[in-house]
Amino acid sequence: MNDLQIEKYRHDLAYLRAMAEQTIRDFERFNYTIVFKEELPVSFLNFQLQLAEQLTAWCKFDAERIPGLLYHIDIPEHKIPARFGCRDTYQLAGIILQRELIKVILKNIIQVELL
Predict the structure, then answer these.
(1) Closest by Cα among 40, 95, 76, 31 to 58
(2) Continuous segment of H or E residues that includes residue 2
(3) What pLDDT, on the 0 to 100 scale, is given for residue 115?
(4) Digit-coded pLDDT (tens) for 95-111
(5) If you write DSSP's letter for every residue of 10-39 in order, what string do you get?
(6) Where exactly are the structural domains of the chain?
(7) What end-to-end distance do the CA atoms of the chain give, in Å?
(8) pTM surpassing 0.85?
(9) Whole-number pLDDT of residue 51
(10) CA distance 41 to 32
(11) pLDDT in tens, 18-52
(12) Is residue 108 within 8 Å of 92, Cβ to Cβ?
């Protein structure tokens, strides 16, 4: 999927909520607890800002586990920033959320095709 195909889903509340849930599940497998504030408006940007903040803390204290997490989430190596994104956690959060959104989109496409 290219950025243009994904763009329409970045504004769909149902897909964004599903993306957040997928992100929480993937991070839980690595014993990272993701907390997205429910009182904030649902938007890709809000999720990205919140995830970046949490990634910053993990990069300071647990950076050696980040590569395994990125592999589990299925981030292509060529998209991983230097030092596994710890220099720019905002960019890394965007990459992670984009991949999580793609997972949700593909899952929904497969479900529709099976019907």
Answers:
(1) 31
(2) none
(3) 58
(4) 999 999 999 999 988 87
(5) GG-HHHHHHHHHHHHHHHHTTTPPP---TT
(6) 3-114
(7) 22
(8) yes
(9) 97
(10) 23
(11) 999 999 999 999 999 999 998 999 999 999 999 99
(12) no
Whole-Å CA distances, 24 to 72, 96, 114: 13, 11, 26
Rg value, the chain, Cα: 14
Rounded CA gap, 16 and 22, in Å?
Answer: 10
Owner of token pair 């905002």: 90
Phi first, then psi: what are they for 43, rounded to 5°? Answer: -155, 155
pLDDT at 86: 87
Taking the C-alpha atoms of residue 72 and residue 69, their distance in angstroms, rounded to an integer, is 5
C-beta separation of 92 from 56 below 8 A? no
Token pair listed for 45: 């940007």
For residue 21, count CB atoms less than 10 angstroms from its CB and return exposed for 0-12, middle for 13-18, buried for 19 or more.
Answer: middle
**How far is C-alpha 37 from the geometric centre of its chain's CA atoms?**
15
Residue type, position 6, single letter: I
